Amino acid sequence: MMAEWLSFSFSFLCWGLVLGGVAAIVIVLLLFRALTISHHAAVPKWRLKNSPAHLLVVLGSGGHTAEMFSMLRRMELDPSRYTYRTYLVSSGDNFSAAKAVEFETDYLGQRYQTTTKDARGSYTIVTVPRARRVHQSYLTAPFSTLQSFWACLLVLRGLHPDQKLRPPYFTSPYPDIVLTNGPATAVCVILAARLLRLYNYLVAIFEPRRKPTSSGSTRSDLQLRTIFVESWARVTTLSLSGKILLPFADRFLVQWPALGGKQMWKGMRKTEYVGTLVD
Amino acid sequence: MTSTTMKLCFVTVGATASFHLLLEAVLDESFLEALQKLDYTHLLVQYGKDSRALFEELRGKHRSGKHGIKIEGFDFNTAGLDSEMRMAQANPSDERAGGVIISHAGSGSILGALRLGVPLIVVPNPTLQDNHQEELAQQLQKQGYVVSSSVKEMAAALPRVEKLRANMLTWPPVSGVGKKKRPPLEQVMSDEMGFLD
User: Fold this and answer.
1) What is the per-residue DSSP string for A39-74?
2) Subunit structure, per the record (chain A) (predicted)?
3) Are A145 and A105 in contact (CB under 8 A)?
4) Considering the entire predicted model, what is its pTM?
5) Who among A55, A63, A234 is closest to B108 (CB)?
């Protein structure tokens, strides 16, 4: 009797493990599939030309920050189009915060004096904890990375304490577009953006009444679009952040021809060679 | 060329890592001789936070002023190095001939020099682990924007600069034949936004 019960519970455990394993594999495959599909879903033309847009710029550190503002200047970032800008910096990175203020006041302020007052001073600088400080132990690094990831999630949802009241014409807390060029914090932000989008997608399936597409001017399924620009200093090899983000960023831009056309696995969107973006 | 005309060689090692090999190379007898031959009058060195002692020691060897080159140095400028780089730009009204910038292979310094249109020698730091900086220097040299040199060949790189000066390309590079209506980044962002246009 005892032996019979033991063997029964053993086989039950085995089946449990097998089923659990299968379920895990199915979920992973579904996630891969979802990533591939989302990489091929082109953004429809749906937004009116003069509708306000919220841009989130992730500032990495020294060289990355310098390159980012160099690109924003060269593309002549138009504050009447990207009416609200959030700059995300890592704690202790005073250089990046100073550069953001300089860009907003000196460049945008002088260049676009004629645009509406609303569009000019409309920006926020948000500080999140560093994923890993220089010389920090690898034992504690996973915890600080999680802490940083959590802060990035808060920023994307507009709940971070540094965030001022955003202009009233934004009904959604999400940035419309996330622009990054590395390193660590950029990885956190893009992963957090993808996680939020997955969550919203699942919510929309299970609660059709709250389907985001139904609300007129904002389509939260088309917000949080992510763009990663590989550093101009990378000629033949991708950076570590680039390698991690290759399957996750919606658009992956590279500035040297040898890096164009790379993809994580077959069927995924490829990196795009767009020439020199810095000035 | 009159003797009052200033011609500057500005050397920068950057803010992050120290680069003692570069300091030793530009304060070497052979390099100063090469400068003198090409009518340089001034050598300005940004040597980094922890290298003042080394710089003073190396400069001390040239107190005699045999080469007639004025050597000066500073550790770092938090406001950026733009004003120092501008001193190497040609400016006839100021009696300044076009000089040269010698820089570590950091992208910030390279871009700074390219924007000002001053000839640049890029010297990758061999003690740094990742060699992607070296690739950048090589690629830019191939395209005709800079002179790439190792720390050991600095004196030989100077005459190559004069050749580069004669055929300077403008920065930033103009995008291909079919001129697009928008800068590529603006285009990509617009596409992702889904703007009707």
Assistant:
1) HH-PPPS-B-TT---EEEEE--SHHHHHHHHHHHHH
2) Heterodimer with ALG13 to form a functional enzyme.
3) no
4) 0.87
5) A63
Task: Identify whether A11 is part of a domain.
Answer: no
Three-state DSSP string of A32-46: HHHHHHHHHCCCCCC
- Find the helix packing angle between B132-142 and B107-116, rounded to 10°: 20
Domains of chain B: 6-171 (3.40.50.2000)
Contacts of B118-122 spanning 24+ positions with Cβ under 8 A: B118/B85, B118/B88, B118/B89, B119/B146, B119/B147, B119/B161, B119/B164, B119/B165, B119/B168, B120/B145, B120/B146, B120/B147, B121/B146, B121/B147, B121/B148, B121/B149, B121/B154, B121/B157, B121/B158, B121/B161, B122/B146, B122/B147, B122/B148, B122/B149
Asked whether residue A35 is domain-assigned, the answer is no
Give me the number of domains chain A comprises.
1
A150/chain B closest Cα distance in angstroms = 25
Question: Are B188 and A53 inside 8 Å of each other by CB?
Answer: no
**DSSP structure class, residue A106:** I
Whether B122 has a pLDDT exceeding 80, the answer reads yes
Task: Give yes or no for residue B118 having a pLDDT over 90.
Answer: yes
Query: Does any domain span residue A73?
Result: yes
Q: Tell which of A75, A220, A240, A270 to mutate to test the B interface (max B CBs under 10 Å).
A: A75
CATH number of the domain within which A73 lies: 3.40.50.2000
Instruction: Please write the tens of the pLDDT for every residue from A211-225.
Output: 544 444 456 678 999
Alpha-carbon distance A224 to nearest alpha carbon in chain B (angstroms): 10
**Structural domain harbouring A58:** 50-131+138-273
Cα–Cα distances (Å) from A153 to A148, A228, A248, B12, B27, in that order, read 9, 18, 16, 40, 51
Which residue of chain A has the CA closest to B78?
A95
